[in-house]
Amino acid sequence: MENSSKQWRFEGNKRLNSASAISVRGVLDLVIGNLSTDDPRPTIPLGNGDPSQFACFRTSTTAEEAIVDAVHSAKYNGYAPTVGVLSARRAIANYLNRDLPYKLSADDIYVTSGCLQAIEVALAAINRPGANILLPRPGFTFYESRAAYEHLQVRHFDLLPDRGWEVDVDAIEDLADDNTVAIVIINPGNPCGSVYSYDHLKMVAETARKLGILVIADEVYGHLTFGSTPFVPMGIFGSIVPVLSLGSISKRWVVPGWRLGWLVTSDPNGILQKSGIVESITGFLNISTDPATFIQGAIPQILENTKDDFFSKVIVTLKEAADKCFDGIREVPCLTCPKKPEGSMFVMVKLNVSLLEDISDDLDFCMKLAKEESVIIVPAALEDGLRRIKAFHQRHVRKQ
């Protein structure tokens, strides 16, 4: 019989609980858990950027055939090198070079398990005791989650809705100090649907150079633009400021489950090499997992052979969906959309809770929308997610 007085020396990692509470997945699980099991209607999943859930989006036959060819070749059944299969890294460099004034090489490319792992690598590589990072608000909450886990302090700069969700550049200098190491720019914007101009991105680059910090450019939605502003990669300004560019095939090829992304050192001046960031990137990958080797093997064929008409069809469908969503939002009195989306797969909406009954905040709204209408959306910002989730549970228990 077990000794009931035994004192066990282990317990759960509370850092993981705190980080999960402000993650997209953590909040999505909470909202999905509030769906009514008695509702016969199909669930409308609008909470994350997974277009593959909808029949109107399907990846190209070129991508599907590339996977089959890679598997049949029997060349990609083993472990991949730490930084990725060489042919994949070369293909990614060539793909990105189409938009750059200088040439990347395979040595600038690190293949990751989707863009999420690229974020993990970037934040781990720049972290040091006492460091802080500048994050956009509203933004993609995985950065907050990962920073919390890394003990990397976060400072938020605002995106300005009346200026198309542009960065409040003037505020950045006031936020930064000697411990600031990087600023994150998400373009096209998640969750705002914004697309930044060349001039605005150059201003951000020049400000980062002035502060002596690098730019982490999250471009997972690169080229998914359907407004008047074309996509401009931050790497164009790599000669001004060192840039860690993050991307993947998840969104543009409609295959988020394939988990193939990249981290790129857009830095023709070699500053990231001299500062030890490159060594830290490799160090993290040495103790991390790899994307599936056969998908890496398929990447050259996917990137080089996919036809423009496939991309055009995706863009047309996204634009039609964005137009309908924007027009529909304008008909709802309690909702306001400051800016019509021009890129990515998201739109940022302001909720006026004063016009609603028995709704305390955006999290409460999302939970009740799931339960009553089987529609899944997520609140815009959960930097204080753990507190708000606990508060929601307390209200729920009291009402029961």
TrEMBL record:
SUPFAM superfamilies: PLP-dependent transferases. Gene3D superfamilies: Aspartate Aminotransferase, domain 1, Type I PLP-dependent aspartate aminotransferase-like (Major domain). It comes from the Eukaryota. GO terms for cellular component: cytosol. One of its GO terms (biological process) is L-tyrosine catabolic process. Keywords: Pyridoxal phosphate. The modification N6-(pyridoxal phosphate)lysine is found at K251. The keyword Nucleotide-binding does not apply. GO terms for molecular function: L-tyrosine-2-oxoglutarate transaminase activity; pyridoxal phosphate binding. Its cofactor is pyridoxal 5'-phosphate. InterPro entries: Aminotransferase_I/II_large, NHTrfase_class1_PyrdxlP-BS, PyrdxlP-dep_Trfase, PyrdxlP-dep_Trfase_major, PyrdxlP-dep_Trfase_small, TyrNic_aminoTrfase. Residues 43-379 form the Aminotransferase class I/classII large domain. The keyword Transport does not apply. NCBIfam families: tyr_nico_aTase. Belongs to the class-I pyridoxal-phosphate-dependent aminotransferase family. This is Aminotransferase class I/classII large domain-containing protein. It comes from Gossypium tomentosum.
